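Ticket opened by: R.M.
Priority: normal
Category: complex prediction / small molecule

The reporter submitted a protein together with protoporphyrin IX containing FE and asked that the result be attached to this ticket for the collaborator who will pick it up next week. Submitted input follows.
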Amino acid sequence: MSNSAFIKSSIAKKYWMALTGLFLCLFLVGHLLGNLQLIFSSGEEGRRVFNEYAYFMTHNPAVKILSYLTYFSILFHAADGIALLIQNKKARPVNYAYSTPSANSSWTSRYMALLGTLVLVFIATHMSNFWWKMKYTEEIPLHSYYSSMAQDTVYLTQKGQSISVAQVNLVGSTEGTQLIMKAEKVNALIESNFSNQINANTLEPSQIAELELAKKKQLLKKDEVLGEGYKDLHTVVLQYFSKANKSESGIPVGLLGTLFYVFSMSVLAFHLWHGFASAFQSLGLNHPQFTPIIKLFGQGFSVVVPLMFAIIPLFLYLIS
Ligand code: HEM
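Result attached by the on-call engineer:
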């Protein structure tokens, strides 16, 4: 590659890294505000608010588009970073004999690739903890609670209908967040009630015909959707960061998880410390008056946002 082509492709990579990086900073603010609900609203109300929020975030079409943009930005930002690293190494295969990196670059800028890799490891682990379970498994139970009005344990539903958990267990099923009355189960129950009535009483043929007619009217033709529930992500997050979260062999998973999150947030802080201001430079947005302000804002951002994130698992662990 000619020198100018090399510089051009480096600049293009830096430009896209900056754009995706700044978009991810916006994601962090939104994600932080959503997750702060875990510590600012408590009890049954807190559980409801968080689970309704999580439902909105996974079902709203506009949020879905933003989510895909986020996944794309994470992958692109990481791949671009690796490509830039390889390109720079190839261009300068031998380290300068008198290289004194500390003289012209800060500790964080020299370690950006390592910090970025650690953040990526965190994101992968974090997404497998909650996001994967929420989207692709049935591991997260649906939100249910005891309703004194219904005198029963019911599901929290979209339209506030009281759908009994016991009833769904008996004649229904749950698919994702849908509460379904299974025709097969309902009909089996109706058939068995009908047989019991016939066997327990001595009936005239006309009475049997009447019962048979009533039974046919009750039979379901197909499965019926009773309502839409909410996944209880709130309980899953609280249980994950709880002191009681231990493996079968007694490993304190809750404690280790909390420490891992706190450590990862300090890594994120260092990554942002350099990345934020550097993104504006890569976009060519240099201004004698505004650049120092942007730098200061970036430093504040890189301390406050990871710190607030770190407080969440710490708080949940300590109150558990
Ligand atoms: C430390 C506090 C944090 C908590 C309690 C937390 C909690 C969660 C939960 C519960 C989900 C699943 C949401 C869902 O699928 O509806 C999620 C998704 C996600 N988290 Fe976090 N998170 C934290 C920090 C972070 C940080 C610091 C990052 C990035 C560096 C991050 C990146 C993500 C991403 C990319 C997703 C997928 C988002 C989507 O599908 O739109 N999280 N987080």
